[in-house]
Amino acid sequence: MKTSFLSILFLLSLLAMAISCKKDRDLHPNGWVTDPTNLPQPPKGCKIVKTTYKDPSDGRTGDLLWEPETITLDDGRKMPISCVAKMTYTYDAQNRLVEVYEKLLNNLYTRHRYTYESHYLIDYYEVLYKGETEPTIRIDTTSLNGQGLINRYRGLGESYLIYNQDYQLADDSPNRPGYTHIYVDGNMIEQVEYQSWGMRNGEWFAYDRFLRHFSFNMTRPNLPVIHQFRGNESRNLPLKEVWQLESSPDFGTQKVYQKTYNYWYDQQGQVRRRIVHGKPLIGGWLIEDDLSGVGVTDYEYECP
């Protein structure tokens, strides 16, 4: 009985440790939580006014270690990260984005100032490069359609960006068959990053395709749209992204990369932190959106 009793105590202590560790992982010092099941839906009409972006900080020292911390990834690994950019967003009385200021390391910065005219958008762009004392300035003008959305990526001229009935970008190659952005229930489940075209028997065919596939948390709304002139984004929060190549001359047809999205929520149900963790699915794949596949974004809001 004594041995049995001690064994039970040992198992109970392990269980307590496991619960404690899980609690530590699922509860942020700010009171944020990872499970939104019992949270309300976020308030309507809120705008994102500030974001802080962090990525892996291995090798950074001194002034390059800006707001360092250590996070736990979804696979249990500990990852030191630090800030590389802080973005501030300003809106006008019509809730249109009018300025984006990006503060970077080494006192560098970028700034976009947007002016809206009836049929075009003026983008005043300012950037201070490393080693320079004065910023470089560029002014771009981009056409807008009747809904106030850009109808080309840059410049004035013929429209080639097509939007669906929900004002989401559906196609950026209207002179080729099919759509480059596919939606189901308001969510983009497939995006064509790039593809090549050929002719066979008088008909177009696509090859060397790079596709992104997405899955979503259908119970939580997506983050507020910042760049409204680019159209609406998916309706719900993305959970997973898989990259696939088709008829690639180097990799053939296969899935090559995967990203998971994990979130911290405040007690109002708003996303306060997003952790993106990517990893290659095949050997030799080197392309990533974030340094070492890890990107962490914190969000601040302004609500009515």
What does this structure look like?
The chain has 304 residues and is mainly beta. The termini are far apart. It contains 1 helix and 16 strands. The chain has a single domain, classed as Porin. A hairpin with a 5-residue loop joins strand 14 and strand 15. It is globular, with a radius of gyration of 23 Å. It is 8% helix and 49% strand.
Name the poorly predicted regions.
1-25
Task: Please give the count of helices.
Answer: 1
Q: State the total count of DSSP E strands.
A: 16
Helical residue percent? Answer: under 10%
Number of domains: 1
Order of helices and strands: HEEEEEEEEEEEEEEEE
Main sheet overview? 14 strands, antiparallel
What form results from the Cα inertia axes?
globular
Strand content: over 45%
What would the average pLDDT be, to the nearest integer?
Answer: 91
Q: What is the CATH third-level topology name? A: Porin
Keywords: Signal
Protein name: YD repeat-containing protein
Signal peptide: 1-18
Provide a quick synopsis of the model:
With 304 residues, the chain is mostly beta strands.
Structural key phrases:
304 residues; mainly beta; Porin; two-stranded antiparallel sheet; 1 helix; disordered N terminus; YD repeat-containing protein
In terms of topology, how is this protein built?
Layout: H1 2-26, E1 47-56, E2 69-72, E3 78-91, E4 97-104, E5 109-116, E6 120-128, E7 136-143, E8 162-163, E9 169-171, E10 181-184, E11 187-200, E12 203-221, E13 236-248, E14 252-265, E15 271-280, E16 294-302
Antiparallel strand pairs: 1-3, 1-16, 2-3, 3-4, 4-5, 5-6, 6-7, 8-9, 10-11, 11-12, 12-13, 13-14, 14-15, 15-16
